[in-house]
Amino acid sequence: MIFNTEGYVKKFTDMMSEGLIVIDHESKIQIYNEKAKEIFGINHVQQISHDRGVIKPGDIVIIGDNSIGRDDGNLNSKALECLGIYDNRIEKGDALIAIGIFNEAGVSPVYEILKSNHLERTFKLKTEFLDIEIGVVIDFLNKIITIEVDRQKFSMNYINAIGHMVILDKETKAMKFYQSQGYTARDESLNNILKGKKYRGKGQDSEILNVIGKDIFEIHRGSKTIQEFYEVAKGKNISYLEEFKEINGFPTMCTLLPVNDEENNRIGAALKVEDISEIKRVIRERDEALQDLEKIEKQLKEEVILKETFPKIIGESTKMEHIKKLALKASRTNSTVLILGESGTGKTILAKAIHENSKNKDKPFIHVNCGAIPDNLLESELFGYEKGAFTGAKIEGKKGLFEMANEGTIFLDEIGDISLNLQVKLLQVLQDKSFYRVGGTEKVKVNVRVIAATNKNLEIEMTEGKFREDLYYRINVFPVLIPPLRERKEDIYPLVETILPKICKKIEEESKRISAEAINLLMKYNWPGNVRELENILERAINLAEGNTILSKHITLNIKEVDYNEDGMIPLREAMNNFEKKAIERVLNFYKGDKKKAMDALKISKTTFYEKLRKYNIE
């Protein structure tokens, strides 16, 4: 039969809209269609050309890495010594921008580090290095890294992490290599290039990477999914349909199936992969919404509007003003909002404020505490059930909370506590705005705005397999991080002024005021329980105070959390921090805000200087 020929197999598989990879029982690739090559960047044809080659001593290396050690070939501080960078502060997960000379002394490298727990939207470095204008920008919001050399730009998009690199020739200073999509398959990770691994050429006439006949682990390294793929080809009975998997840093929907011969002997395995472009669309939609809202925001008198719009969000610090601005933006869009913050920071108040200022403010606001409802009941609470769906169900059935929130807002508090099984159904609702009741066969459609909140680090939960990555991308369209009270102590006084009268009225006590000494004690406390703990301490103080004034003796705190000791003496570390902060402020005032002169006068590096500015909240 003509259709059994190799040429027709390739033609038919290349017509598929999904990627298809087939390996034999020895893990050798037999089919790797064009869509799979497109998904993993193997057939990527770049506009800018360069020849094949290898890095050489004296070459100029420019690096932009948003998360050290994650998708760059396990790069670490030791590997960076070839560029003259000797810095044991560089840790896995940190962002790095670096410019240096490969294996040649004499010229000091230029680099900056951003620690993994940062909240920055962009990370930039612009300098002149050996008379070459070089700029690197890591855009964490839009997930793109751009390296610019004498106005020529080399950009790479990423999903989770990426290591971007440009190499300039020692003699000519011309570009001899730049990183591009598919570098994992080409074995051209950042770390491998620095170890002397040869790289392929790019451009229309460059050599195409032929993967047929290669071992699957040469093309896809360090992936659990590829390991399963290999084990199935060897005979293990694993199969699944359309499961979310990450391969080479690319989020995909995968189907894994065994391949047997006519006698039912295992001869290989097939992996179908679909690119989850929906995530990219959601991110683009979010960015466009933010850009439109920025234009609107400039036309408003921010301070007046924010105070009138969010009277229940108390705080005058810079951080809380930023939160109010984000809340205003969130209230004017219908995108999904994810509110992050420690327990007691006011996530519920913020969620209600966003709803109350949205176009659907007259519609329902349904608050669901996902952590307080047992897992076996949560599904029926969220989606409802048909009559007779299970033992104990109401005869007439029950409408779920999603239906009750139709045309309005559903607030999924503590979403990080939802089980993996329920996460799958929740993802379906967010994607299609429809679901089935428990025991039902008729699809229920809803138009509901979702606001989610959690005190957990969902990125850590994902790495531990406790939270689905595709659900994280779906809810993390518009993230808002509420800072803890210890990071905005200037808000304590306005909070006390607002909370005190409310508590007095609630417990039917006459109005009370608070003394300066009591306020000073509150300012020294570290507030592990945040605003909720402040409310409890004030209510206790009101009950203890016999007169109409709350004194310091009425304030009951966990003494371990107070910055000063029992004798009123300041600890040595606190004294040193205060002295350091004042020294930096004095130098900045002397040089009228010129940071470069301040750095030189203090004799500290740029990285250390900016870390201390952030630490002490110096504007």
TrEMBL record:
It comes from the Bacteria. The keyword Transcription applies. Keywords: ATP-binding, Coiled coil, DNA-binding, Nucleotide-binding, Transcription, Transcription regulation. Pfam families: AAA_lid_14, HTH_8, PAS_9, Sigma54_activat. The keyword Coiled coil applies. Signal peptide: none annotated. SMART domains: AAA. Residues 313-543 form the Sigma-54 factor interaction domain. Residues 279-306 form a coiled coil. This is Sigma 54-interacting transcriptional regulator.
